[in-house]
Give the backbone structure.
Amino acid sequence: MTWFVVDCDTLLRIAAGEIEVAAEHKLVAPTLVRSQALSALYEAARRGTVSAADGIERVTRINSLNVRFLGDKVLQRKAWKVADQLDWGRHTTPSSWR
């Protein structure tokens, strides 16, 4: 099983059927992404880019997806762990920060 962190644009593309997620993959996202997606779909409907019915259907799809929305504390710990595992910042952080 592979975990993928998704952003708002990716979540919208999944809801639109542009991206299919294999059953063995798990999705996680910051809690804020759900609100961003709702806002983006509402704005798209107001602009006429999608119909209101299609926007509501996509919101329903987002709510039915198996996405684990994580709060800040969980994401901070995960981000720290991943950055440490990948040794991020070691070569990009100014020497005065070390």
The chain has four helices and three strands. The radius of gyration is 17 Å. Residues 94-98 have pLDDT under 50 and may be disordered.
